Amino acid sequence: MKPLLYAALAAYVVAAIHAILTFVTKRRSLERVTTGSLACGFAAHTAALIVDWVQEGHYPLFHLHETISFLAWTLVVAYGLAVYRYRTHALGVFLLPLVSVLVLISNFALGDEGRHVGRITEGDAAWLFPVHTTLLIFAYASFFVAFAASVMYLWQERELKQKTFSAVFHRLPSLTTVDDIGTSAAAIGFTLLTLGIITGVVWSSARNGHIWHNDPVEFFALLTWVLYLTLLHYRTQWRGRRAAWLGIAGFALVLCTFIGAFVLGGYHVFG
Amino acid sequence: MSIVLVGLNHKTAPVEVREQLALSEQACAESLHAIVDGEVVREGLIVSTCNRVEILAASGRERGAEAARRLRDHLSANARMLPAETFNAHLYTHADEAAVRHVFRVASSLDSMVVGEPQVLGQVRRAYSLAVETGTAGRVIHRLVHHALRVAKRVRTETGIAASAVSISFTAVELGRKIFGSLKGATVLLVGAGEMAELAAQHLASAGASRLIVVNRTHEAAVRVAGKFGGEAVEYERLAQTLAEADIVICSTAADGYVIDATMANAARAARRNRPAFFIDISVPRNVDPKVGELDNLFVFDVDDLEAVITSNIREREREAERAELIVESEVMQFQQTLRDLDIGPTVGALREKLRRIALEEFARKRHRLGQLTPEQERAIEALLVSAVNKISHPVIHRMRRSYDTGEDENVQAWRDIFGLEENEEK
Q1: Which of A33, A78, A124, B264 has the CA that lies 20 to 30 A from B197?
Q2: Which string of b and e fits B327-352 if b means at least 16 CB within 10 Å?
Q3: Predicted complex ipTM
């Protein structure tokens, strides 16, 4: 549903610009503009997804542009939760421009409408497929939040250690807060990733009996899973700087998962 | 009318001069009574703090210079101990726009010793209420002070002028907040004692730190300090164990070497399961091994580091002050407009009212000739008459305002005469 998606894009761009302006000028009054336009954008975006679903007749997480649009939507949800829980708008500086870019790409992404939906939606456990993809997209959004929190952590930690503070320093939430955000986001992401992998395995075995396809996506997903497992297991010992680096490494693996799917091809295809 | 301001501050006069002039509230009230005569000086206000003594006055138009002279004489008379010439060199005199700007800058703490420190705002408020009590604040000073308070608020909220700490203890609190977020529930460990350390502990406590532990080589001293702040004293021998409980450690002992070394800090860190800790070392020579700061999740700031933060904070404030000056400038312009309206306003109002009245009276007089009219029609005619009269008077009012703006008072008077406006109609 293009007009709705354009409206969402416009609102997101306004929100992103105001988030950055708030960050730069410290004018709290601009936050309200961000929140307002973000809410509008989110409403339009949600409507676009639903209309898409009804019109296309399949869950809006199948074609490439749908996946990207859905990812942007989950990022907005993640941002909303973070703002609600931690009362910090600094994340918006990372998230909202990305959301805008994703929606923009989704608007102009080349259609691959030729691909047959039926291939996926047939079989016994077909209903598991949208669950599988939704869980994973939400997991990736969480990992991005963890990544953004890690960057904020490392930035501040470095400045605190070197005792030279840039203007950005005073605008970021405290070390403990970003550490908390990073850990919670990683834990949520890990849970979703685990569930996503399980549903994928169940779906796949119901479909053709295989649970492993020697596919780069599966490889990287497993690696990501192991990494976050380690991170959460050693959470207390690895608090702070090391946890932040792992958060960044984990997100790099997530990116590899995506890029791997595109470059190397294989059983998994996004879109 | 004219606004004049005469005074001296920490930039123009050394403390020996300022202390001679500093006035008690009683003395301020007496001075106000002495200065304000309703003729040359119509309204007055005195701000007297340890950094400045300033008299603000509103006088009649063309009487500004005379009023300024009177204020200067009054101040010199108070500073009897000094020869008049040397004293006058410390004084500054601002008139009209410059005076308004000065008042706005003072209230916004742009003129303070440390830019952005908020005390001066309270002092301006007190000076104003004193002037109100004394009965020397009139409509000019009312507007000016209210506007100044508004400017100060705008500067505070729209710039980061007061956002960063400029004292050791507040810097400690600020850095603590940066590390822990809220300081609520934080445990503070005071190693050694000293005025600055106690002050820092006090600020941390008022920022929410809930538990204070005091360790001192002489246990009695620890007990004394702990008693003073409602903390607990712990024997010096147990410092290493206690360290594990502390989120914030303030070190200020007279020891020659390191009281807390890397091994100790590392053990405490492990016991704390890597939760971050913040060491403030305000002792010279240093008590905390700088190597502690190289460990993950431990942050050490010594006196020099804190001073460096303060210096950069002051620089940040000065950068923000530049933005504040722009706000002040635009507000000065706005106030000038208010001031003009304040003066010409009643005349304009009287003129509009008089013309409107004439139109409506004429309508009432000839009403019977118009026959039957519905209430709507009647109202429409009234509105039409008023709007026609306003259209006609608009260029007149415009010219009148311009005459007033350019100071051609005789022209304003001429317009008054033409329309037969009396003084009493304008009240």
Answers
A1: B264
A2: bbeebbeebeeebeeeebeebbebbb
A3: 0.79
